[in-house]
């Protein structure tokens, strides 16, 4: 495929605009951190700022600075809140500072559960400090309980603002319908509802922190509520204006909060006619309700603040109001880019159904096997339930891989914007085998393909495969997946226990359709034809089932059922090693198999399990062990003819500790030769030697 088309480089003016937006974001986070830390909940506790810091994925340092200053501004009693906020952020930095492939540290990327746990620890520190300082009393105990229980709850609530792929810039100046529920799938509706709940909770607590602040009798909470109500009513419509007006003014008065809600509702319905009409009618509704319910005092409490809010909001409303011809053209181009990405995404989703479809072929093969190998299973309902479970397992994996990854999509949208890809649209699909579609306008100065790829790789923590590129006029589209991190070299060797017999061991090494490498060694118990037939059947079955992501527990249950129902009573060990070639990491699945070994430099790691072979018992006895695998590692799988336990074979540990021969075939033969010398057994001997290579 042709190289990725180069995309227009950001102009100096655009760069300045983007930097200005980031500065604005940091100032807002500083301010919010300051206000939420000062927000008093109950019993003297201030847990909201702690929860906000725990939930933030970006701009954490700016928010921490605001929180620290907010805590210190409360005097001696607030120092503990500044300290606990600082400890929380540094704990987050410590647990999330893992290096990606590019060597860049990915701070504040923990899971939600870990963030909630860290916020609990930060609150616990503040609670203990209060109890030690003030002594154990009902008040100090209530303070401590609030500081421990509240932070994880509000961390979860605030997470809806940051973990659902809706970026700051999208809310401020993106799609007008970003919060609309019309035409959305159920999952998208839940995400939008969660985002709105989180945003309203944040506005409530900001209003609560401003409740006791007044300048010449003018309430800052009502000014804040008025500004946010008008902006949200203009940006998202009357219903959102009503909700924001009520929630943000609620800390001051439940009755007068309704007045601001009516202002949001009325102004939101009239902004389409004209900004002036919307502001006037909104003010009339607010004044009428305030005067009716609270009399002159209610009118005086809300109307001046509303008038000040309209003056402050007017420049911002004008920015939201109109679009230049250039902006309209850019929006049209952006929509075209979205259409291109959407079309390619639909094609990708339809094509990515291989696991389920291919597993159906596997089930047909198994059905034929039942007729020939296990006629007693015909009509057995349990067998078909296992079939259904295997299909369901594969379908779930398919769904995960071709569904859009909203969180990663939001991260990548910000990343490509930072390298100058203005108006670009990107979508990420899947969790493990991630796929990307990127479209944008090419109109002059260029952004190199290296810059675009590097920004995606750094943000996603992967290496991209060679992209496929398409053009339609000024629009360019890139379609790419991720590149494998690892490859393998493999060698096998087998010796029959008796020269006149055939080996009862079966070996199979293969790659799956979803980029796993599998090494499988099955040892039929006993010797001769029956043992060979059983091990071959087990190996062939597992190979077919795992080629299309069928590695679930149902696979082993089915194999156990088939072998137990066989014509001959025989069992087989299963020793399966699976290596994720895309992202690294290995897994051993053992049933009755002897130990396996991982050699890394001069270190030897033993992987063993005390399990029974397949087909020996009614229930499946298998064990899974996940291991870290690195380039230049060696993995050894052996049948019990080589060694039952490493304690029985000191010669084996000495051999594996030596420098590896250059040839893997020589390595495999050498192990069997030494086993024949050192073991007094006529059991079959087999070995698989795998070398892991980086890419």
Spatial strand sequence of the major β-sheet: 9-18-17-14-15
Structural class: alpha+beta
Straight-line distance between termini: 21 Å
Number of strands: 18
Q: If helices are DSSP runs of H or I spanning 4 or more residues, what is the number of helices?
A: 21
Described by its quaternary structure, the protein is single chain
Overall spatial form? elongated
What features would you describe in this structure?
With about 700 residues, the chain is an alpha+beta fold. The model is unreliable at about 1-15, about 100-105 and about 320-330 (pLDDT under 50). It starts with 6 loop residues before the first strand and ends with a strand. Helix content is about 55%, strand content about 15%. A five-stranded antiparallel β-sheet has the order 9-18-17-14-15. The chain is elongated. The chain has 21 helices and 18 strands.
Task: Give the helices and strands, then pairings.
Layout: E1 7-8, H1 12-37, H2 48-55, H3 60-72, H4 79-96, H5 112-134, H6 138-159, H7 168-173, H8 186-209, E2 214-215, E3 218-219, H9 220-236, H10 238-249, H11 254-270, H12 275-321, H13 325-351, H14 354-373, H15 381-402, H16 406-418, E4 425-429, E5 435-441, E6 446-447, H17 449-460, E7 468-472, E8 475-481, E9 486-495, E10 505-511, E11 516-524, H18 528-546, H19 553-564, E12 572-580, E13 586-591, E14 596-600, E15 603-607, E16 623-627, E17 634-638, H20 650-657, H21 664-678, E18 685-694
Antiparallel strand pairs: 1-6, 2-3, 4-5, 5-8, 7-8, 9-18, 10-11, 11-12, 12-13, 13-16, 14-15, 14-17, 17-18
Helix pairs in contact: 1-2, 1-3, 2-4, 2-5, 2-6, 3-4, 4-5, 5-6, 8-9, 8-10, 9-10, 9-11, 9-12, 10-11, 11-12, 14-15, 15-19, 16-17, 18-19
């Amino acid at each position: 495929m042709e190289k990725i088309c180069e995309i227009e480089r950001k102009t100096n003016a655009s760069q300045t605009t983007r930097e200005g937006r980031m500065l604005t974001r940091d100032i807002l986070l500083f301010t919010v951190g300051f206000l939420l830390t000062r927000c008093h909940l109950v019993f003297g506790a201030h847990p909201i700022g702690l929860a906000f810091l725990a939930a933030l994925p970006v701009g954490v340092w700016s928010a921490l600075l605001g929180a620290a200053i907010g805590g210190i501004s409360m005097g001696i009693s607030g120092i503990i809140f500044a300290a606990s906020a600082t400890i929380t952020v540094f704990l987050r930095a410590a647990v999330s500072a893992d290096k990606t492939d590019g060597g860049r540290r990915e701070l504040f990327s923990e899971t939600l559960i870990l963030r909630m746990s860290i916020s609990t620890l930060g609150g616990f520190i503040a609670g203990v400090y209060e109890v030690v300082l003030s002594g154990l009393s009902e008040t100090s105990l209530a303070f401590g309980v609030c500081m421990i229980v509240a932070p994880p709850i509000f961390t979860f609530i605030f997470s809806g603002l940051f973990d659902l792929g809706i970026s700051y810039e999208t809310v401020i100046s993106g799609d007008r319908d970003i919060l609309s529920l019309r035409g959305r799938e159920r999952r998208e509706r839940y995400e939008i509802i969660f985002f709105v709940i989180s945003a309203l909770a944040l506005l409530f607590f900001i209003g609560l922190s401003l409740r006791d602040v007044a300048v010449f009798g003018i309430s800052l909470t009502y000014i804040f509520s008025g500004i946010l109500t008008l902006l949200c009513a203009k940006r998202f419509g009357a219903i959102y204006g009503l909700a924001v007006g009520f929630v943000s003014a609620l800390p001051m008065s439940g009755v007068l909060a309704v007045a601001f809600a009516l202002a949001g509702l009325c102004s939101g319905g009239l902004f389409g006619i004209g900004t002036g009409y919307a502001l006037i009618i909104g003010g009339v509704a607010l004044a009428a309700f305030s005067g009716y319910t609270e009399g002159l005092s209610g009118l005086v409490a809300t109307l001046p603040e509303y008038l000040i809010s309209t003056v402050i909001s007017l420049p911002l409303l004008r920015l939201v109001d109109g679009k230049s011809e250039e902006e309209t053209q850019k929006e049209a181009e952006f929509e075209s880019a979205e259409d291109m990405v959407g079309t390619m995404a639909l094609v990708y989703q339809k094509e990515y159904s291989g696991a389920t479809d291919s597993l159906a072929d596997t089930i047909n093969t198994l059905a034929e096997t039942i007729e020939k190998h296990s006629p007693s299973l015909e009509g057995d309902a349990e067998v078909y339930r296992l079939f259904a479970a295997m299909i369901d397992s594969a379908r779930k994996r398919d769904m995960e891989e071709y569904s859009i990854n909203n969180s990663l999509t939001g991260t990548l949208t910000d990343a490509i914007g930072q390298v100058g890809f203005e108006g670009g649209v990107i979508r990420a699909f899947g969790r493990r085998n991630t796929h990307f579609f990127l479209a944008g306008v090419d109109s002059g100065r260029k952004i190199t393909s290296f810059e675009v790829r590097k920004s995606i790789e750094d943000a996603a923590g992967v290496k991209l495969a060679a992209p496929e590129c398409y053009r339609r006029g000024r629009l360019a589209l890139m379609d790419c997946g991720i590149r494998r991190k690892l490859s393998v070299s493999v060698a096998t060797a087998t010796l029959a226990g008796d020269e006149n017999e055939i080996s009862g061991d079966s070996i199979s090494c293969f790659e799956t359709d979803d980029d796993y490498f599998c090494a499988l060694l099955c040892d039929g118990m006993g010797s001769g034809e029956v043992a060979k037939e059983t091990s071959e059947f087990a190996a062939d079955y597992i190979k077919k089932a795992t080629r299309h992501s069928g590695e679930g527990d149902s696979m082993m249950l089915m194999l156990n059922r088939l072998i137990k129902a066989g014509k001959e009573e025989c069992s087989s060990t299963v020793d399966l090693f699976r290596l994720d070639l895309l992202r690294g990491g290995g897994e051993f699945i053992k049933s009755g198999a002897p130990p396996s070994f991982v050699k890394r430099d001069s270190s030897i790691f033993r992987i063993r399990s005390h399990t029974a072979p397949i087909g020996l018992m009614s229930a499946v006895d298998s064990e899974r062990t996940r291991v870290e695998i690195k380039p230049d590692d060696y993995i050894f799988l052996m049948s019990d003819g080589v060694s039952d336990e490493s304690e029985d074979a000191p010669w084996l540990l000495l051999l594996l500790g030596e420098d590896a021969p250059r040839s893997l075939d020589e390595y495999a033969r050498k192990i069997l030769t030494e086993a024949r010398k050192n073991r007094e057994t006529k059991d079959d001997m087999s070995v698989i030697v795998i070398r892991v290579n980086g890419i």
